[in-house]
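Sequence in, structure out. Go.
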Amino acid sequence: MEFAQLGRTGLKVSRLCLGTMNFGPQTSEADSFAIMDKALELGINFFDTANVYGWKIGEGVTENILGRWFVQGGGRREKVIIATKVYGRMGEWPNTSRLSALHIRRACGRRVRSD
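Output:
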């Protein structure tokens, strides 16, 4: 796998990035885990996600799938660089979307749900 410098972060990411947009609504959790396992096996260490992926407002379906995959261990979290977005609507109130400071802080501190 070829790697590239990620801006001025000092991080090296695979030139291929695994998109996770359909994890949950169109790809089962088991299949999503298998895809991420294979990507990591092939040297892909750059995964793209967003808090709105999964298409259920306020649920973070795809990010929760990634979180459950990470907690399986095996160095998964230490090996993967995540690109994510926080702009999408996560609720009906003014500070639950776009670039409100509250929305960004909540997105950064979100915990993985176990259900």
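Check: The chain has four helices and five strands. The chain has one domain: 3-85.
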